[in-house]
Amino acid sequence: MSVPSHQLPLHDADAARDADQALREHADLARHWHLADLFADDPERFQRLSLSACGLLADFSKQRLDPATLDKLRGLATARGLDAWMRCLFEGGEVNWTEGRAAMHWRLREPGRAEGEDDPVRDQLARMERMVTRILSGQWRGCEGDAITDVVNMGVGGSDLGPLMASVALHEHQPDRGKRPRLHFVSSMDGSQIAPLLDELNPATTLIVLSSKSFTTVDTLSNAATARYWLEQAFPDRNGAVLRCHFIGVSAMPERMSEWGIHDDNQLLFWEWVGGRYSLWSTIGLPIALTIGMEGFRELLTGAHDLDRHFREAPWEANLPVLMGLIDVWNLNYLDITARAVLPYDGRLKHWPAYVEQLEMESNGKSVDRGGELVDYHTCPVIWGEVGPNAQHAFYQLLHQGTQPVACEFIAAARHGRNGNSAELQPLEEQHTLTLANCLAQSRLLALGDRALEEGGDTPAYKRYRGNQPSTTLLMDELTPYHLGALVALYEHKVFVQAVLWGINPFDQWGVEMGKKIAKDMIRVLENGEGSDGLDASTRALAGYVRQQQT
Ligand code: F6P
Predict the structure, then answer these.
(1) What does the longest C-alpha to C-alpha distance in the chain come to?
(2) DSSP 8-class letter at 461
(3) What pLDDT sits at residue 99?
(4) Which keywords describe this protein according to UniProt (predicted)?
(5) What DSSP line would sit under 42-106, residue for residue?
(6) Quick check: 64 pLDDT over 90?
(7) How many CA atoms lie within 13 A of 184 on its CB side?
(8) How far is the CA of 212 from the centre of ligand 1 (A)?
């Protein structure tokens, strides 16, 4: 099924040049458009420029574009071979050509194959389900025979951000709230997360999940070593029981897990063809399953699978990931808007910005194209974000009256869908409406400026709002596992669409690899000064200062 990298689709360079030129000319006009005029000129603008699929409504009408812009962008996508690249992705081609790998995260959410047929994905999910059942039912025991009260996920990047984001977002969907083990996440290598946690936890009732695709990431392994030390101090001489009862490993590298000491029965696998930042659908999603149960986890997969089908089947005019990808390209490469703010109006999505930052910037922060040439255009914008209502009191001033254009992305759930004890609290429903009112008001003000308020005239310049900040609003009908699955898959595919247009590989991260390597060399410099002569003057002096302070 694998398509070797030398058979990857090519693009039509001449057609791409023409499409790019047409977009540049179009952008020369569009740069003078104001969103307030676009709305005034076309009462049907929302109908023309909004779209829904899989329980998500996307409103692109507050973007600085018109239907002709989208036609031209689709022309560029055709010339760049998007169709063939999509086929290649879903046929398991080596779309990650610098590592000679497929990228088949979509395969993880396909319905399982029939019993009897070979299906490693289904088998690992079943293995994960057995563990989830044992942990949640209290059958999984610590080495003293106690049921587990606390599960700590240790991982970083894709082995942390996806499970963390989704577990927090879906916290209210726990089937039996309050009765489950508490879930904790430790990612940072500096010990600042694990130290206070170990102070609180009871080693007898704590289960550690070591999540690392490579099982070589120093951040995770250093936290793991500390946790192992803590447990072995608490329970000395237990003849392997500490490792067997208190550690689960999740990785694509079973031999490395075994070498570290993870018991065979406690190993969950996934595969090289699942990128770290695309892995929450795999056994890396164990913390999510512990939060919402396996039924909830399967709903998450279904939402993502439905979005996969939408991406594969919907015509580009009505294709959410394609349109989102094209619009980001328009903002960055044609309107020169180099920053994007991600603004969830829902505290349950508080880790969404960090998740998207990794997904997009680690995927598309690249500058070499498929031909090995440096690109002469921007790829991925700078992305940052925060829960919207808090951001209003932090950086919105810059969005409203600063000097830089920023594309904004508003995300909210139309219905809160509250359950549990708080479902009875009417004021909470009002708070949800208040939050949505803020979301809609902010995107309106950013788009229209003070023309939204019909103020102007004598208003002093420092009180004026220029507006014209473009935004997309994404409304989920409700924040359920299904909707979150669809939302995440939408972003994953959007990132792919952009990468095809930019001609880059979104599935490698060589820049990060180099950072990991040179940090290792620096440890020796700090420990004993070894190798400091070869350093630049700044790093040498800083290392010297640290050593002096530590002695
Ligand atoms: O940040 C680099 C990276 O390789 C990410 O792509 C990955 O998600 C993270 O490190 C963690 O890697 P691992 O799961 O192998 O520990």
Answers:
(1) 81
(2) G
(3) 95
(4) Cytoplasm, Gluconeogenesis, Glycolysis, Isomerase
(5) -TTHHHHTEEEETTEEEE-TTSS--HHHHHHHHHHHHHTTHHHHHHHHHTT---BTTTTB---GG
(6) yes
(7) 18
(8) 7
CA–centroid distance, 475 to ligand 1, in Å, is 30
Above 70 in pLDDT, residue 480?
A: yes
pLDDT at 235: 96
Q: What angle do CA 241, 287, 251 make, to 5 degrees?
A: 65
Grade residue 459 by pLDDT with cuts at 50, 70 and 90: confident
DSSP assignment, residue 450?
G
Q: Which of 99, 156, 223 to mutate to test the pocket of ligand 1 (most atoms within 8 A of CB)?
A: 156
Amino acid at 448: L
Our mutation pick for probing the ligand 1 site, out of 214, 218, 360, 366, counting the most ligand atoms within 8 A of Cβ, is: 214
At 120-169, the pLDDT tens digits run 999 999 999 999 999 999 999 999 999 999 999 999 999 999 999 999 99
179-217: per-residue pLDDT in tens? Answer: 789 999 999 999 999 999 999 999 999 999 999 999 999
Rounded-to-10 torsion of CA 429, 411, 480, 122: -170
In the structure encoding, which two tokens stand for residue 212, read together? 């690392």
Query: How far is ligand 1, taken at its centre, from the CA of residue 511, in Å?
Result: 12
**What's this model's pTM, rounded to 2 decimal places?**
0.96
Whether ligand 1 lies within 6 angstroms of the CB of 307 is answered as no
What SS3 state is found at 348?
Answer: helix
Q: Is 163 in the pocket of ligand 1 (CB under 6 A)?
A: no
* Mutation to probe ligand 1, out of 509, 514, 516, 517 (largest number of atoms < 8 A from CB): 509
The pLDDT-based confidence of 1 (bands split at 50, 70, 90) is: very low
Residue of the nearest CA to atom 6 in ligand 1?
276
**Binding site membership of 277 for ligand 1 (Cβ less than 6 Å):** yes
Q: Give the position, in ligand 1's atom list, of the atom nearest the Cα of 362.
A: 6
Collect all residues with Cβ–Cβ distance below 8 Å to 261 and sequence separation of at least 6. Answer: 228, 243, 247
Q: Does 213 sit in the ligand 1 pocket, CB within 6 Å?
A: yes
Average pLDDT, the chain: 94
509 within ligand 1 shell (Cβ under 6 A): yes
User: How many other C-beta atoms are found inside a 10 Å radius of the C-beta of residue 292?
Assistant: 27
pLDDT, mean of residues 380-399 = 97
Query: Which residue's alpha carbon is nearest to atom 8 within ligand 1?
Result: 158
**More confident of the two residues 117 and 419:** 117
Measured between alpha carbons, how far is 137 from 134 in angstroms, rounded to an integer?
5
Region 107-126: mean pLDDT is: 90
Pairing of strands 471-478, 56-59: antiparallel
